Amino acid sequence: MKTVHKFILKSYLGPMILTFFIVMFVLIMQFMWRYIDELVGKGLDTSVIFELMMYAAATLIPMGLPLATLLAAIMTMGNLGENYELLALKSAGMSLPRIMKPLTIVIGIIAIASFFVANNLVPYSTKKIYALIYDIRQQKQSIEFKDGIFFNGIDNMSIRVDKQDPKTKLLTNILIYDTRALNGNMTTTLADSGYIRLSDDKKYLLVTLYNGQTYEETRNYQWFDKSALRHHFFTEQNGVIPLSGFDFERTDTEMFNNSQTKNIAELTQGIDSLELLTSKSTSISYEPLLKTYIFTHDQALAQDTVPVDNSHKQKIRIEDSLSKMNIYEQKSLWEDARFAANNSRGVFSMDEQSAKEALNQLYRYKVEWHRKMSLPVSIMIFFLIGAPLGAIIRKGGLGMPIVVSVLFFVIYYIISITGEKLAREGSWGSFAGMWISTFILLPISIFLTYKATNDSNLFNAEWYIIHYRKAKAFFIALFKKKNNIQS
To answer: What residues have CB less than 8 Å from 157, skipping those under 6 apart?
Structure first.
């Protein structure tokens, strides 16, 4: 490898790694902020939080890698241009494509690796995230008593304390309403002080109360007047109450299977199966409607392939038939027709709903298939936009490159989200919806590469001012000449 190529690679890999981690940090924080309400107050271990962040980082690579590639390319070529190193290389006879050759090879390797990340790592991580979020949602909040406020986090129990010592965790003036009995009896417990905490495995509630009294109501639902109230005092009372939902239980990840948790091979197989299912569901939707509810007496009319000879049939006017019926027969006929119409509409709506669900599932599978295929191409296009743009701007650092990078990425993201939405709804084909951003940005990358190769003044304000003045002088002279001819 030439020394120049080593120098260019060294100049690029540093900003690439730095920007990638910065972008991933921002995206992970946005992800955690989205679920912050479900994570706080449940006593989750730090390992669970880090596990969730790790899987989230894996799923966000397809979004962060193109932006990091674009930003690093603009910064690298901008720094080379700002320090006149790019000018020195061109003076030595190296063209811009030749200077970018080692970077193009590295980005090509990164693009290929990104496909395997999107195809294997992202589906696995997405499945893990679904399972973790489900387990976190199922877990109840940890037991935390607030002074003077009832705690209702335990099923069929309500606990109130006047004060809790922050150091010793001693509770004072405890009031407990317990309705866990299957027969509906309620037990009310009052205590001067005590301790209430979870066991180490979070499967039991350990209760120790001092100097209190218990009221237990027993009811007889056949004779209400025979209900009784039991009352007894205690000096110390200990209890162990079984709990559920406070310990973090793991759910099998195989329960969470959808289009986002499958690789290319599984998506291809699913697409083939769903195409057959949608075709079958669509045909089945109309067949019962035709045979059962419309052509109930002549099944030949319901078959498109069976020829029907209507030459022997006479045309009958409905008005003539109705005129021969009395009012009761007309009413009965009307009721039968309305009943058949309502039944046919209900049957068709149910079949149509199943066909629509299969079709929507097919759209989602196709969108995910094209998403994985378009990621490597988008990385290459972002590099081909960023490197020429940096060579034209000739500004390094984090100022101008960040502004330009965010602008291009926002345009790309808006176009991608719009195309994906239309593809999921079936308004567009999945290929057009997922590749439209690539088709729009590809000509821009070619144009910028051409301009940078020919040392264009695309972002030189003086060049635009000079040409504006020339154009202005030309039109003024043309206008004066036209007035002289008219006069």
So the answer is: 176, 177, 178, 179, 180, 241
